[in-house]
Design a protein that fits this description.
It is built from nine helices and 20 strands. It is an alpha+beta fold. A hairpin with a 7-residue loop joins strand 10 and strand 11.
Amino acid sequence: MTSSAARPAVLTETLVVGGGFFGAWLALELARRGRSVVLLERENELLRRASFHNQARVHNGYHYPRSILTGLRSRVNSARFLVEFDDCIERRFTMYYAIARTSSNVTAAQFKTFCARIQAPLRSPPRAIRDLFDAHTVEDVFAADEWAFDAERLAARITTLLAAAGVKVFTGHDARTFEPSTSSGARVVTRVRDLASDADTSFGSEHVFNCTYAGINDLMRRSGVEQIALRQEFTELALVRVPDELRGVGVTVMCGPFFSFMPFPARGLHTLSHVRYTPHASWLDREETAENAAMFSRLPRRSKATFMQKDAARYMPIVSRFEVADSLWELKTVLPQSEADDSRPILFKRDAGIAGLHCVLGGKIDNVYDMGRELEPLLSLERVNS
C-alpha cells in the first residue's frame, strides 16, 4: 500500500465495484435511497461478463426442489423482476421440466408436492412434447411458467436507469486494492487503474460494495484482507440451433447429473448445459491459488458440447440433432455450503476486514431483490448513528 492511496483523489459517499447486474442494481437502489453513488466496471460496458454468460433464466422456483426457501424466494423475486424489467423478458416459449427415472434426487411425485408448496403452477404437456422424451429414462414431464431475459436489452435498460438516477459510471476502470482511509469524509480508499490511459487514481468513500463476483477474493487478497470461502467453476454453456419442433421450447431434466436447454434471446440461439460437462474445472479460493482472472484467461477452451448432446439424447433423442454454433465461457462462483442442497442465497458480508467494505455475491440474477433486505439494517444503523 502506498501513502498516496490513503489520500483519495475522488471522494464519493458510496462506491460500488463491479458492473454486473448485481452491482448495477445495487448502485441504482442506493441512488434511489438518496445516496451519492459511483459505479466502477473493468469492462467497457456493463453486464458483459457473468451477467451475460449464463442461461438467462428468470427462475420461478422450479429449479430448487431441495431448497424450499430458495424456491419461495424465487417465486417472490421473479414476479417483481418481470414487472420492473418487462421489456427485457422473452415470453414466447414454454418451459418444460422432466423428472428422470434414475439418479434423480426427486421423484415426479416429490416434484409435484414441492411445486404445490411454493405455489408454482404445473400443467400437462402436449402429446407432441411428451413424445419427444424417452419413456424408459424419463418418469414424467410438466409444463411450467418460466422465462428468459435478453442480456443485451437488460444492459441497455439498467444503463438508462443508472443515468436517470444520477449514478456516475466509470467503465474501463479496474479496482486494484482496498485500504482504510486516513482522510476525513471517507472510511475506505479504493485504488483504481484507468485501463484506457493506464493511469492510477483513488476513490475515497464511506461505503464500498465489492460486487466483482469471481473477482471478490482477488481484490481481498491484494488488499491483505481475509478471503471469503468461495468455490470457482470454469464453465461452458454451448450455444446451439435447435430443430423447428423446439424453437419455442425450453427443457430442464431434474434433479441430478442431467441437462437443460432454453432460448438465449441475446444471440437468437438456445443454450445447452449439462451438470456433468458444463464445469470444466473447479477450485476453492485460497491464498496460494492464482488469481481467478488469471486462471480464467489461461484455462483451455476445449468444448464438451458433443458430450452434453450424447448424454442428453438418452432422455430426449432429438437433442442429437442440435447444431452447435458457439460456446460461452465463464467463471461461476458459488458458496461451498450451497452444494449440498442447491440453494442460492445472497452473500452480504458487512465490514469485510475493513470498516465500510462490504462484499456482495448473488447466485442468480433475479434474487437481486434480496439485497434490499440486507441493505436496510446497514442504512438504518447509519441513520441512528447520524
